[in-house]
Amino acid sequence: MIGRLNHVAIAVPDLEAAMEQYRGALGAKVGAPQDEPDHGVTVVFIELPNTKIELLYPLGDDSPINGFLDKNPAGGIHHMCYEVEDISAARDQLLQSGARVLGSGEPKIGAHGKPVLFLHPKDFQGCLIELEQV
């Protein structure tokens, strides 16, 4: 069902410092920040030859990233995103297997302009999983 790894998301307490670290110390191609109000985050994509890193920063007081950063003040890996061909079919198959889909269960449009869903981390060895339709 899952395809390639689309990105690994890292929640960061200081977006500018994280961008500079990837750009300067690691020599990575760093994209521009983009606000994603529907998800309560500002994202920056770091382009790698085989995948992407997504830096996540809270957008407003209601951001779900605030709680993560409260527990992990230095930041850390927030989720992994895998590509799927048909997000509705993937969701239905996962629900039949007992996995929990977060939110309403209906896909939202993600940072790449494509439908996404999140799966409960307790169902996947403590890792929050994002599925993105390609």
Please render the helix and strand layout as text.
Blueprint (H helix, E strand, L loop, with lengths): L4 E7 L3 H11 L3 E2 L3 E3 L4 E7 L4 E7 L5 H8 L4 E9 L2 H10 L11 E2 L5 E5 L8 E6 L1
Parallel strand pairs: 1-5, 6-9
Antiparallel strand pairs: 1-6, 2-4, 3-4, 4-5, 7-8, 8-9
Question: Your description of this structure?
Answer:
This protein has 134 residues and is an alpha+beta fold. The chain has a single domain (5-133), classed as Roll (2,3-Dihydroxybiphenyl 1,2-Dioxygenase, domain 1), CATH 3.10.180. 22% of the residues lie in helices and 36% in strands. The chain has three helices and nine strands. It has helices at 15-25, 64-71, 87-96; strands at 5-11, 29-30, 34-36, 41-47, 52-58, 76-84, 108-109, 115-119, 128-133. Strands 1, 2, 3, 4, 5, 6, 7, 8 and 9 form a nine-stranded mixed sheet that branches. It is globular. It starts with a strand and ends with a strand. The mean pLDDT is 97.
Q: Which characteristics define this entry?
A:
134 residues, alpha+beta, 2,3-Dihydroxybiphenyl 1,2-Dioxygenase, domain 1, 36% strand
Short synopsis of the structure:
With 134 residues, the chain is an alpha+beta fold. The protein is built from three helices and nine strands, in the order βαββββαβαβββ.
CATH architecture: Roll
What is CATH's topology name? 2,3-Dihydroxybiphenyl 1,2-Dioxygenase, domain 1
CA radius of gyration: 15 Å
End-to-end separation in angstroms reads 12 Å
Number of helices: 3
CATH C-level class is: Alpha Beta
Helix content: 10-25%
Largest sheet: 9 strands, mixed
Question: Looking at the chains present, what oligomeric state does this protein adopt?
Answer: single chain
Which regions are unreliable across 5 or more consecutive residues at pLDDT < 50?
A: none
Task: Report the count of strand segments.
Answer: 9
Give the overall silhouette. Answer: globular
Class from helix and strand fractions: alpha+beta
Element order, helices and strands? EHEEEEHEHEEE
Mean pLDDT over all positions = 97
